[in-house]
Amino acid sequence: MHIPQQGLSKEEILHTLQAFKSRDADWKAGKVWCYIYNPGEDPAEVTREAYLSFLSENGLDPTVFPSLLRLETDVVRATINLLHGDSNAVGHLTSGGTESIMLAVKTARDKARVEHPEITQPEMVLPKTAHAAFHKAAHYLSVKPILVDIHPKTFTVRAEDMRAAITPNTILLVASAPSYSQGVIDPIAEIGKIAQEKNVLFHVDACVGGIHLSFMRKLGYAVPDFDFTVPGVTSISTDLHKYGYAAKGCSVIMYRRKDIRKYQIFACTDTTGYTLINPTMLSSKTGGPMAGAWAILNFLGEEGYKKIVEEVQEATKTLINGINAIQDLQVLGEPVMCMFSFKSDTINVYQLADEMGKRGWYIQGQFSTPLTPRNLHISVNQGTMHNVDVLLKDLRDCVEIVKRMTPIDSDAIKATVGAALQSPDPEAALGQLAESTGLAGTELPTEMALINEVLDAMPDELCNVFLVNYFNDLYV
Ligand SMILES: Cc1ncc(COP(=O)(O)O)c(C=O)c1O
To answer: Fewer CB under 10 Å: which end of the chain, C or N?
Structure first.
């Protein structure tokens, strides 16, 4: 587009913007089983109004906008209280889980730079199930990720394997409560003991679990300790824009003590410009997400969250039992809260996701790894829980449809990928192969099964290169 010579009317603009959404997944009808956390109409309306009322205020400088300092400290303290931090615990609001995690890694790296200057190649020890945000942090911050295998049945890491991966270069241990992929909690208490024994920082990624698990615990569900109650846990990330049902752009990074958090904060007076003091990655930032989060916490209150959590857990139980009752599908591991994944030994789950897509559902595919089969992921929340029975019916129907379809020949695809890997330029050969499945250019694919099959057969490193190239072309 070019900026028009004459501006358009408000009506034209809003109409066009709405029209852009015509191919988007129908999240409002509760048909998208990831990405969206919908608290329902009234809470969403309150959040929206609160967000818009702080849209223009700039979080860059709390001395000019004390209201934002108030909003941030209120929301952070409420989250710390929920996660059993004491009065020494501190934190900040960030734009999301990724930023919270990147800051936790930066803090650990910079603390080690001061306290352990002998460490020239810092390492962090991560279970294989840890979120990709840690890999991104490693990449951006030059910290080496040391990956630890998980148990192939429980999908949790073994604490002793974490211990074995610690070296004199270790600056941070990481575990999830729960991990996104299978929704299971790592042995946080045992890893906390190791962290204390080895005197190393320990971050718990409770981005998805922080709020939901805390209310499950208040309701009497069996939830292992995962927060500041565990000695040795030094930082926790909890996203309010997931199961806190806040508007997007809001996560909390928390530290057990201020003397750890100080390594997160950046100040700069070395320019001709204004004095810059940034606790987080962003500098200028809207106050919208802070006000939105403050509003939803106060609007729902403990009782509101408990009601949602109880209903979501009931729906999840129905869904898990219903999926396990379909002979061709099996839920993986023992998910603790309302997110899980399922596999099939008899049908291609990527084809199943496409068939469900034709009925308007979005269910996310996850690739196989040496320790996990390919699977489909589901996160249940307030905005989707009412659809559990319809989803189950469509799953049953679609499994039968996929059974009658020509199956994708996985072995043939593996062989073609293998041949491409042997060619003189594997990157180009794999790129051509993926392109031939429809993943190229600026048009978005409508069916993903064949594409996923090819990507799943590629070695991770080359798959990543291919995906980077794909996005480099997609956004013109
Ligand atoms: C466990 C976990 N950690 C971190 C993240 C990253 O969060 P965000 O997408 O808000 O950056 C996610 C996202 O789903 C997650 O599930």
So the answer is: N
- Cis preceding-peptide flag for 178 (omega within 30 of 0): yes
Q: How far is Cα 339 from Cα 244, in angstroms, rounded to an integer?
A: 15
The ligand 1 atom nearest the CA atom of 206: 1
Is residue 210 within 6 Å of ligand 1 at its C-beta? no
From residue 155, give the alpha-carbon distance in Å to each of 194, 300, 379.
20, 33, 17
Instruction: Give the per-residue pLDDT at 136.
Output: 98
Q: Whose CA is nearest to atom 16 of ligand 1?
A: 180
pLDDT tens column, 92-135: 999 999 999 999 999 999 999 999 999 999 999 999 999 999 99
Q: Find out whether 153 and 167 touch, Cβ atoms under 8 Å.
A: no
In the structure encoding, which two tokens stand for residue 258, read together?
């201020």
List alpha helices for 116-187, DSSP H: 132-141, 159-165
Beta bridge partners of 172: 124, 201
Q: Is the CB of 239 under 6 A from ligand 1?
A: yes
Question: pLDDT-based confidence at 436, cuts 50/70/90?
Answer: confident
Residues 6+ away with beta carbon under 8 Å from 132:
none
